[in-house]
Design a protein that fits this description.
Layout: H1 12-25, E1 29-31, E2 37-39, E3 45-48, H2 52-61, E4 67-69, E5 79-85, H3 97-101, H4 104-112, E6 114-121, H5 134-148
Parallel strand pairs: 3-4, 3-5, 5-6
Antiparallel strand pairs: 1-2
Amino acid sequence: MRHELTAADKSQQEADVVARLWQSAQGQTWRNHLGEEARIGPSDVLVVAPYNAQVALIKAALPSGARVGTVDKFQGQEAPVVIYSMTSTSAADAPRGVGFLYDLNRLNVAVSRAQALACVVLSPLLLDAPVRTPDQLRRVNALCRLVESATVVAGV
């Protein structure tokens, strides 16, 4: 089944925020689980997005060779920093619906790839999604809990 995607499968605003976050990570020092310090370079940042159209926008905003892809591309890989662009402005705008965008496995894989820092770039409207089933409630609640436990940086 082919999904027709609308403009909600990409966000230039989020791509710009991701590019600023990616740039700000470059050259920073991080410490691994053994206490060893290293400088963060281009290969030390994974950028994840749910839709190929957003991946393309982000790739265009970053230097060649930046590690950008969907969750599927980075299965089993880790990096000191992971930036996850949720892309859609609201649940209503999400191509493929709440089930895809708020998928617990997708969210878990995206943020659990980070060895030191996970950044989730999202619209606050995604936290106020209407739900109709217990499964949708679990999915939206997981995102809300993640944001609640995070340090929020607005206007990066």
